[in-house]
Amino acid sequence: MCRSISKIVLVIVNAVFAVFSLAVLGIGIWVAVYRGRAISKMESAPEDSELKTLANRLQLMSAAIIIIVISVFCLLLTISGCFGAMKENVCMLKFYMVVMTILLLGQLIVIGLAVVFKGRLQDEATRALRKTDRDLFKPYNQLGPVSGNQTDSKDIVSRIMNSIHVSLRCCGVTNYTDITVNSTWSRANPKFDNRPMLIPASCCQLTDDGAKYLAEHDDWSDFKKYLINGSQCPTKLADFHRQGCLSKIVDSWKAHVTSIIVAAVLYIGFNVVCIVMAYCLIKEYSQQRNL
Length: 291
Description:
Blueprint: H1 2-33, H2 37-43, H3 50-58, H4 63-86, H5 90-116, H6 118-136, H7 153-168, H8 177-180, H9 184-187, E1 191-192, E2 195-196, H10 208-217, H11 245-255, H12 257-290
Antiparallel strand pairs: 1-2
């Protein structure tokens, strides 16, 4: 009974994960061939820029290769589990069980480190992003023309941040002062309708259609018509998004934390089940050979 159930479970679970690995492999190949717009912009920044430093730290160029390598490894692992069960191959099942056990322990260690160093990681990310905002963010009406080979790091960061502000309806990393106080943006003396701007245009409250258009097209030439009726933004500290983008992202994460935890528990549970099933089959096949 244990033998039949274990074989069926291993074959089905590994077949499903094999399909998933193939899908991830396809994504990795697609990313390697057609790099995303944001990644391309970050990598094209000058060597001495904060954005380039951040891109180098994250090793964005190697992300696609890492995805491909991991997906190929997972594909080979699922094949060993699936065929080991079907062909009653003890060596393949032992390899499968040992690797799955190592992966399970690795996942538990990563989760533990993430929990322990959660505050430090968030602080480091906040510091780096606030410095990027202060040093590189420019007024929307002082950006250079969009080009396929844009290399001005300030233009690149500004366009990315404008898109984030509009899409998430937030401003700055922690709040608008990350951009407006002692920054590249404030020293540029930005103006709107010949009046000093007190807040970035992308932080203003916009109509739904306007926010969608600006997030997708990055065309600020008719920005004024997208403001909500009676808006005094950006020349007064009114009618703008006061929440920082980092806290907005964290809030979104917290809103889905239950689903994330359930998914993680189910995934780890699947790993444990596969390890147990593989052990049962190894034991059954070994006893059968000794008869």
